[in-house]
Amino acid sequence: MTPEQQGLLLGGLLLGHILGDFYLQAHSWVADRDRRHAKSPLLYIHALLHGILTLIVCLLFPLGWALPLVFAAAVTLSHFCFDLAKSYLPKKQIWFVIDQLLHLAVIYILWSELSTIEEDWLSSVLNMKVLIVVLAYLLVLNPVSIITAQALKQWDLDVGQTDKSLASAGKAIGMLERFLILTFVLLGQYAGIGFLMAAKSIFRFGDLRESRDHKMTEYVMMGTLLSFTLALLIGLGTSQLLKLV
């Protein structure tokens, strides 16, 4: 297997994981899993979904049927076990990180065990740089939103009960900000990031000043800076990867 083929396969498996964990899993699924544990049918559906995504990615390569089925079964079982264990643990950032690392470790082990691909038709269909950029944009949207929310949970002010803004508007704005930041980084237009931060500061300054709530101000600043930082790190990391492939 050539390095490009290895990268495409690993990227496809990571793409499947991101889609399954952060885009195809509703919050209600997580709540049901945490409440009912092994009795939650949504936990089984979620694990099976990851197995199906793994199977689809593997079948893009001429590996036959046996090996992809074995890998899909392994992902399904491991994902079920890890998520079931997490449902009994406290809702802390450390367990979220460990859970994701375990999932990624399984993906890496399975990927490293793949046999040599006999054909290279996929290399002409997919481009490694395109796959890296797609993964980067998927990461800065929903996954970073979840990471930011988890990090701020210890200072949760229950802003949804007191804020008069539109429902989920803050999440949507954050996702759009990170989308723009990643775009600016990939284009090398770092001045645009400064303009974006300045514009948000101007719009939020009046609301925070009128509220006279220091906790709210610190909460918003912490969330904004963390979101911006993660987007920048992903953008810079993506730029370096693009130079290597």
Written description of the protein model:
α4 (66-87) runs antiparallel to α5, α8 (142-152) runs antiparallel to α12 (214-244) and α10 (169-187) runs antiparallel to α11. The chain contains twelve helices and no strands. The chain has 245 residues and is mainly α. The two termini are 16 Å apart. The protein is flat and about 60 Å long. Helix content is 80%, strand content 0%. It holds the Pfam family DUF3307. InterPro entries: Phage_phiKZ_Orf197. The chain crosses the membrane at residues 6-24, 44-63, 131-152, 179-199, 219-242.
Quick structural gist:
By secondary structure, the protein is mostly helical. The protein has helices spanning 3-23, 27-36, 41-59, 66-87, 93-112, 121-125, 128-140, 142-152, 159-162, 169-187, 190-211, 214-244. The radius of gyration is 20 Å and the shape is flat.
* Nearest-integer average pLDDT: 83
Compressed to H and E, one letter per element, the order equals HHHHHHHHHHHH
Which percent band covers the strand fraction?
under 5%
Low-confidence stretches: none
Q: What summary fits the major beta sheet?
A: none
Radius of gyration over alpha carbons?
20 Å
The end-to-end span amounts to 16 Å
Tell me the overall shape: flat
Helix content: over 70%
Q: Count of helical segments? A: 12
Which structural category fits the helices and strands? Answer: mainly alpha
